[in-house]
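Translate structure to sequence.
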């Protein structure tokens, strides 16, 4: 990794890296200059993804200690991606103006507070090229909450990743009312070059798409446990053993298109009545805290003692690395 230069200028500025090594999109791939603002959990993962794709990446953070951790953290993430050589394309800077001056694409990863994001976007827009794409990693803030006053606001959008981002291909692209189709198109091309598979929203929607789907499943999971009819582990077994394997290769609509001999129309004909009946009984939410206090927390404690959660996170990441490798092998083999 290049250390931040004394001036804080972007390492390798002016020299577009020409190698395609490790790039998910292979020969002839796009090469751009990416700046990541905020070198925490999500910022470091974005840096690994963009560097693997052959892009020059500079990370900026207000906190020097965060910048000091970048080398070790990004190396670990790149090892998961079998792309350790890409660390050469990653540099850090403690000077925001210098970090964004030549950027083609800026990915903001600062804390989830609209006022902080608004301030950071204003500073980025002041110093970045007028046509640079400015994307936010926000998990749930509407982009219009913090991009309204940004000069050139038509190139701002949300690009929301999933944790850990270097092991998930999904990214939600959410436009503000003023985001241009051209900006969405350019963001999509850059993200696809980094191996991502964008989910494109046509307008702002509370919860975007993934959290809305997850909300439906979580509410039913809490309802089931609250009813006492099934254990928390068996709810998880229902997902792990039945829903997740087919959803992971087919999605929701793909699954039902194959679950009736003549496809989705026949599926609707056969099963709509059942699902409408179930849906009509699934409108009330239960109090999650009461379910937790009423036994869910004790069940989880028995499954995974709280002291073992960090070890479990490391185990989860190893499982996801294996899944990502299997997916890459399936796509390239
Ligand atoms: N953690 C997740 O699971 C997850 C998933 C998807 C999206 N996100 C979103 O990504 C964003 C970042 O989350 P995170 O988990 O990486 O947080 P984090 O706390 O790990 O990192 C945030 C970083 O931003 C830095 N920072 C704070 N103010 C700054 C400023 N004004 N300018 C530059 N840097 C600044 C901090 O020093 C820190 O290093 C949030 O909007 C979050 O909602 C998080």
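Result:
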């Amino acid at each position: 990794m290049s250390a931040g230069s004394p001036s804080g200028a972007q390492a390798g500025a002016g020299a577009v890296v020409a190698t395609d090594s490790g790039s998910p999109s292979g020969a002839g791939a796009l090469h751009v200059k990416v700046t990541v603002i905020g070198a925490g959990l999500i910022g470091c993962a974005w840096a690994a993804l963009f560097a693997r794709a052959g892009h020059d990446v500079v990370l900026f953070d207000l906190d020097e200690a965060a910048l000091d951790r970048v080398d070790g953290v990004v190396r670990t993430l790149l090892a998961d991606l079998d792309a350790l050589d890409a660390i050469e394309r990653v540099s850090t800077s403690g000077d925001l103006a210098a970090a964004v001056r030549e950027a083609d694409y800026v990915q903001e990863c600062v804390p989830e507070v609209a006022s902080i994001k608004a301030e950071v976007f204003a500073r980025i827009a002041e110093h970045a090229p007028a046509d640079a794409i400015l994307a936010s990693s926000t998990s749930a803030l509407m982009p219009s909450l913090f991009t309204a006053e940004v000069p050139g606001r038509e190139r701002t959008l949300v690009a929301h990743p999933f944790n850990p981002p270097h092991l998930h291909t999904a990214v939600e692209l959410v436009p503000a009312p003023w985001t241009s189709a051209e900006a969405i198109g350019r963001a999509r091309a850059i993200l696809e070059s980094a191996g991502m598979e964008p989910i494109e929203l046509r307008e702002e929607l509370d919860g975007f798409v993934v959290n809305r789907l997850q909300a439906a499943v979580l509410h039913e999971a809490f309802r089931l446990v609250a009813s006492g009819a099934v254990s928390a582990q068996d709810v998880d077994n229902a997902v792990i053993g039945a829903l997740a394997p087919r959803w992971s290769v087919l999605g929701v609509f793909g699954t039902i298109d194959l679950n009736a001999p003549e496809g989705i129309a026949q599926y609707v004909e056969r099963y709509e009545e059942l699902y409408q009946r179930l849906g009509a009984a699934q409108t009330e939410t239960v109090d999650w805290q009461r379910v937790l206090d009423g036994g869910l927390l004790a069940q989880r404690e028995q499954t995974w003692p709280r002291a073992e959660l960090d070890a479990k996170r490391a185990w989860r990441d190893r499982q996801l690395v294996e899944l990502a490798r299997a997916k890459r092998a399936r796509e390239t083999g």
